[in-house]
Amino acid sequence: MDYTIVAVVILILALLVAGGVFLVFARPGRGSPPAPPPGETDASPGTTATSGTDTTVDAGAGAGADADADTDTDTATGTGSSAATVPTPEAAAPEAVVETPPPGAGRLVRLRARLARSNSTLGQGLLSLLSARDLDDEAWEEIEDTLITADVGVTSATQIVENLRTKVKVLGTRSVDEVRELLRSELLGQLNPDLPRTVRTEPHGNRPAVLLVVGVNGTGKTTTCGKLARVLVGDGRRVVLGAADTFRAAAADQLETWGSRVGAPVVRRDEGADPASVAYDAVARGMSDGVDTVVVDTAGRLHTKTGLMDELGKVKRVVEKQSQVDEVLLVLDATTGQNGLRQARVFAEAVDITGIALTKLDGTAKGGIVIQVQRELGVPVKLVGLGEGPDDLAPFDPEEFVDALLTQN
């Protein structure tokens, strides 16, 4: 009996002790490791622990994942360890490639087909009329109208017709070859091949040649400066470009693009700066660098704006304080016809024009503007633009020009 009571008491005590122990270890936060702080995970086999990030990459799961899954972290499979990701350095920007343009000599020969296509109305039309069996008064009037329509000018057209009429009557020629030779001789005479057409780009001792490029906005003036730089570099010249068109920010950017292609530095200032000071700085840079030629792009001006034309004269005077100006090239759009001729007259009064750069000659059937502008101003056409390509500016050659007009397509 006494043993039974003792055994029951011991059993009860044992149950109480066991229950207490169970309650103690069952409480949360007791007997278990503290929860990891946010952003940390257990580094156990098969996982990669990352600190300070919110990304955990499971190597075992990554090994069995679809091979096409897009991931930025490489994990090692089969070993339970991770491979460190090495950042790829950014590729260095490629250096600007400096181009080597073709020389100026022979460019018009290469472009004559383009010129012949655009001016076939003038040349071929005249040949067709002159080769007719009956050259009566009406036929000669039609020949004169064709010349005037091509912007040859009334005075030049009348003179050409009178000379041709006399020669045809005296010689009695009718064959196409004979008529072509007569017409070729007459057109060449009107172009005056003896005029000096060389653009003066040779340096004078330690002083570079200075070229001012003037013209109305829209004629292709800034583009002509860039293409002229390519011609000069192709001929072995070292060139500095001056962005004196400070009224138009895009002009300086455009000129800088042209210069970077051929390694020609560009002197520029902020928009609205004094154009004369920019031109002066460009010449000073050319002298200090020992270059051969400085080409200055001036602001495009309406020929009807007296103040702007006066400022153009100021640019020339300021430049001449340290160096003479070798060329003043007037850029004219061949498609503008008589309006272009009026522009030329006003510019010639403001500055002494030494040569004409006639652009867009491939885009017009009015190639006779070459004859008229030379007759009116007594200034030779020195450069012609025959396309939109970077190397479509060519030195003007009267014989090549006339031969292109009279080429049979």
Keywords:
409 residues, alpha/beta, Rossmann fold, 10% strand, cytoplasm
What name does the CATH topology of the domain at 209-353 carry? Rossmann fold
Tell me the name of the CATH homologous superfamily of the domain at 209-353: P-loop containing nucleotide triphosphate hydrolases
The fraction of residues in strands falls at 5-15%
Unreliable runs, pLDDT <50, ≥5 residues? 28-84
Order of helices and strands: HHHHHHHEHEHEHEHEHEHEEH
How many beta-strand segments?
8
Give, in spatial order, the strands making up the sheet with the most strands. 3-2-4-1-5-6-7-8
Look at the structure and give the mean pLDDT: 76
Radius of gyration, in Å, reads 42 Å
Q: What percent of the residues sit in helical stretches (DSSP H or I)?
A: 40-55%
Distance between the termini: 141 Å
CATH class identity of the domain at 209-353: Alpha Beta
Please name the CATH architecture of the domain at 209-353. Answer: 3-Layer(aba) Sandwich
Overall 3D form: elongated
- Major sheet characteristics: 8 strands, mixed
Per DSSP, the total helix count is: 14
Detail the topology: elements first, then pairings.
Blueprint: H1 2-26, H2 59-64, H3 107-118, H4 120-130, H5 137-149, H6 154-171, H7 176-191, E1 209-215, H8 221-234, E2 239-244, H9 249-262, E3 266-267, H10 275-289, E4 293-298, H11 306-319, E5 327-333, H12 338-350, E6 355-359, H13 369-377, E7 381-385, E8 393-395, H14 398-405
Parallel strand pairs: 1-4, 1-5, 2-3, 2-4, 5-6, 6-7
Antiparallel strand pairs: 7-8
Family: Belongs to the GTP-binding SRP family. FtsY subfamily.
Function: Involved in targeting and insertion of nascent membrane proteins into the cytoplasmic membrane. Acts as a receptor for the complex formed by the signal recognition particle (SRP) and the ribosome-nascent chain (RNC).
Membrane topology: Peripheral membrane protein
